[in-house]
């Protein structure tokens, strides 16, 4: 009965959060056995969680980076690094998304932030609008896979899984996805006879490689000083930051400091310097230091606007979590989750078969529900089955998030689809057709991530 009421409300065009809370309220009135106040109590309890404090701060950090001119720096760095390859701006699109994913945490922010710059640049260089939209949409899915990630925070809270382990689990799969997308760009470049978009110049490429070496070498050097030589951690990190800012001023780096955002987050969490929630606050402080103090591209007036936008987005996300928590509780209380688990386990006890069924279900659900709502509904249903079958919950979290990100590219609820249709001034139908070829590398990545869990779990197992 609960599911029927929910589907009726959804089919009437009611927003998913209101449909979930409304279905729960109507069901309680119909049953007349539980006080309606339970709905409010469970909704409040659903967002009364310390890990969820990370949500507004990660949203704020992404908004600060997006409004502080950081996207232009990322674009210029990616252009210098890979713009000289055939189909150069397609590769720039992917590399830029990899970097921006380490700051935004959401696919929509990636599509709206870098997408505006990249699609315009690709159109100006003669690329088909459909190709520009397709590669931008596909690369935007990297936003929640490469840490930090808002969906990982929500999943970690719902499934009682370490958010830090989820962040580490996304690094290698995210890089693999980026590689497959770049191979797809190379295929289209070869097929259409596209050349490079900038000349190969050693000074520009060497400078980009030096920046890459700094990004990789700086944390490794600090790790060696702290763990191998026994230097005091806080003092070493502080001195390292001073040297990093000095090098940035002397060499006029494009994007070293912004790229350091995920490095600082992952490094701080894996060394125990701060929790994921405290890491979200650290990311905000880092973004403010860069935007207000170092680059001076963020004014206080703009900062206030960013904060107001963050409040609006946070309220939307947390209302969905609150509504989904009462709905998930009702599914459990009415025995729906137990019935589904029993049916699945009666059908198969093979983990690979269950993962296939779960993938198909999540791809379908992702087309109709916003990722936060989908996670909060699906976790109580699917996680107990994973525990029974011995499937690692960190691995399953990455599979779930990738499925739901692919769902963002499809009608009727694909937010990335609608954002890019507006940015590129294309109809939703043409945008959908432009994205279809890019489902090949995305679904290929999903198969690899689903059935080769070692790729996902290798890094988390080194630290957790």
Report a brief summary of the structure:
The chain has 464 residues and is mainly alpha-helical.
Topology of this structure?
Layout: H1 2-11, H2 16-31, H3 37-47, H4 54-67, H5 70-82, H6 88-104, H7 107-124, H8 129-140, H9 150-159, H10 163-169, H11 171-192, H12 202-228, H13 233-251, H14 256-270, H15 276-294, H16 300-333, H17 336-347, H18 351-366, H19 371-389, H20 393-407, H21 415-424, H22 428-435, H23 439-451, H24 453-463
Helix pairs in contact: 1-2, 2-16, 3-16, 4-15, 4-16, 5-6, 5-12, 6-7, 6-8, 6-11, 6-14, 7-8, 7-21, 8-21, 8-22, 9-19, 9-20, 10-24, 11-23, 12-13, 12-14, 14-15, 16-19, 17-19, 18-19, 18-20, 19-20, 20-23, 21-22
Structural notes for this entry:
This protein has one domain. The chain is 79% helix and 0% strand. The protein has 464 residues and is an all-alpha fold. The mean pLDDT is 84.
The helix/strand class is mainly alpha
The residue fraction in helices comes out at over 70%
Radius of gyration: 22 Å
- How many helices does DSSP assign? 24
Order of helical and strand elements: HHHHHHHHHHHHHHHHHHHHHHHH
- Which descriptor suits the 3D outline? globular
> What's the pLDDT, averaged over the residues?
84
Question: What percentage of the residues does DSSP assign to strands (E)?
Answer: under 5%
Count of domain modules = 1
Number of strands: 0
Distance between the termini: 42 Å
Q: Low-confidence segments, ≥5 residues, pLDDT <50?
A: none
Largest sheet: none
């Amino acid at each position: 009965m609960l599911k029927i009421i929910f589907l009726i409300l959804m089919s009437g065009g009611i927003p998913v959060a209101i449909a979930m809370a409304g279905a729960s309220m109507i069901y309680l009135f119909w049953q007349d056995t539980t006080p309606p106040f339970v709905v409010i109590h469970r909704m409040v309890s659903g967002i009364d969680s310390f890990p969820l404090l990370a949500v507004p701060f990660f949203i704020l950090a992404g908004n600060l980076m997006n409004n502080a001119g950081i996207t232009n720096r990322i674009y210029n760095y990616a252009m210098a690094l890979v713009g000289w390859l055939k189909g150069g701006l397609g590769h720039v699109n992917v590399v830029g998304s990899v970097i921006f994913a380490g700051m935004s945490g959401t696919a929509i922010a990636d599509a709206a932030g870098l997408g505006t710059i990249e699609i315009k640049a690709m159109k100006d260089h003669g690329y088909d609008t459909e190709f520009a939209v397709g590669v931008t949409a596909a690369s935007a899915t990297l936003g929640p896979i490469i840490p930090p990630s808002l969906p990982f925070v929500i999943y970690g809270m719902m499934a009682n899984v370490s958010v830090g382990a989820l962040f580490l689990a996304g690094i290698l799969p995210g890089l693999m996805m980026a590689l497959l997308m770049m191979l797809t760009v190379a295929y289209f470049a070869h097929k259409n006879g596209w050349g490079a978009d900038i000349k190969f110049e050693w000074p520009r490429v060497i400078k980009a490689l030096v920046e890459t070496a700094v990004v990789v070498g700086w944390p490794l050097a600090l790790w060696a000083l702290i763990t191998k030589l026994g230097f005091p951690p806080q003092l070493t990190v502080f001195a390292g930051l001073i040297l990093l800012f000095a090098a940035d001023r002397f060499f006029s780096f494009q994007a070293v400091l912004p790229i350091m955002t995920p490095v600082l987050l992952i490094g701080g969490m894996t060394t125990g310097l701060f929790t994921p929630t405290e890491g979200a606050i650290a990311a905000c402080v880092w973004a403010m230091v860069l935007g207000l103090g170092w680059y001076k591209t963020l004014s206080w007036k703009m900062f206030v606007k960013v904060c107001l936008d963050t409040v609006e987005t946070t309220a939307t996300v947390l209302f969905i979590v609150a509504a989904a928590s009462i709905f998930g509780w009702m599914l459990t209380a009415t025995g729906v989750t137990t019935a589904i688990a029993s049916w699945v386990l009666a059908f198969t006890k093979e983990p690979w078969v269950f993962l296939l069924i779960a993938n198909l279900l999540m791809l379908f659900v992702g087309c109709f529900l916003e990722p936060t709502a989908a996670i909060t509904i699906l976790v109580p249903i699917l996680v107990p089955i994973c525990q029974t079958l011995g499937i690692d919950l960190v691995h399953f979290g990455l599979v779930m998030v990738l499925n739901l990100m692919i769902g963002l590219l499809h009608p009727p609820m694909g937010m990335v689809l609608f954002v890019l249709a507006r940015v590129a001034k294309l109809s939703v139908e043409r945008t959908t057709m432009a994205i279809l070829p890019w489902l090949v590398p995305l679904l290929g990545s999903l198969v690899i991530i689903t059935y080769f869990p070692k790729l996902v779990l290798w890094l988390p197992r080194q630290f957790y």
